[in-house]
Design goal:
Blueprint: E1 13-24, E2 35-36, E3 40-49, E4 52-57, E5 60-66, E6 69-77, E7 91-94, E8 97-99, E9 107-117, E10 121-136, E11 155-161, E12 164-166, E13 169-172, E14 174-178, H1 184-195, H2 207-215
Antiparallel strand pairs: 1-2, 1-9, 3-6, 4-5, 6-11, 7-8, 9-10, 10-11, 10-14, 12-13
């Protein structure tokens, strides 16, 4: 069958970032408590590595080796939850008093982006992004006088990650779930874990648990 381009309903795009949730890591390596992140304005995923190195033998190119791939990100927001302060190197001394330059707590993060098309626009679907083993680096905070063109401060953090184990695959720091390609019931089961319910706290499941949810199909 001859290929056809730009058919109706197949002009897809991605946009937006919403439903951010912070999951501070526990001492056992799990992410037992989720906190809603209000004021999230942008997340830039920045993979690095995976660079080729050519090897030569017998005066010809013998093969190409690839370096390990790493995952990083940049988080931008107008504000952040109090629970993120430990992740940003601040420790509470007493109520409302904080000391900076303290050890930085690792964390997990989930957020949602929109998948749109030419018919349903932004209602077509969405992707869930799950980040593990994240550590925020030192960030600049630029405070300026209020004037006749006021702007809210935008906070920004560069994030590095340490991959976690994935059964049957290489370790990873990122899982992505496409709502248009998975069963709605299984997606709802995952979101009930990520966002919590009437009787359960929100938490970030490790990849093995996420895989088991969708393997049930």
């Amino acid at each position: 069958m001859r290929l056809v381009w730009n058919e109706t309903g197949e002009r897809f795009y991605e946009t937006g970032v919403r439903h951010g949730v912070l999951y501070p890591i526990a001492i056992d390596g799990t992410y037992p408590l989720g906190i809603a992140w209000n004021g999230l304005t942008g997340i830039t995923e920045s993979p690095s590595g995976a660079e080729p190195t050519a090897l030569y033998a017998d005066d010809i190119k013998y093969l190409t080796l690839m370096s390990a791939e790493e995952f990083g990100a940049t988080i931008e927001a107008y504000t952040y939850p109090d629970e993120f302060m430990k992740c940003d190197g601040s420790e509470a001394i007493s109520a409302g008093v904080y000391a900076g330059q303290q050890p930085r707590q690792a964390f997990g993060l989930s957020y949602r982006t929109v998948i749109g098309n030419d018919i349903q626009m932004n209602d077509f679907g969405y992707k869930l992004h799950l980040i593990y083993g994240a550590v925020a680096s030192v960030s600049e905070k630029a405070y300026q006088t209020i004037n006749d063109s006021p702007e809210a401060i935008t906070f920004s953090w560069d994030v590095a990650t340490t991959p976690v184990n994935v059964p049957g695959l290489q370790p990873t720091a990122l899982l992505t779930i496409d709502s248009t390609k998975v069963e709605p019931a299984q997606l709802q089961a995952l979101e009930n874990i990520l966002y919590g319910g009437p009787m359960t706290e929100a938490r970030l499941p490790l990849p093995e648990e996420v895989i088991s949810i969708f393997a049930a199909a």
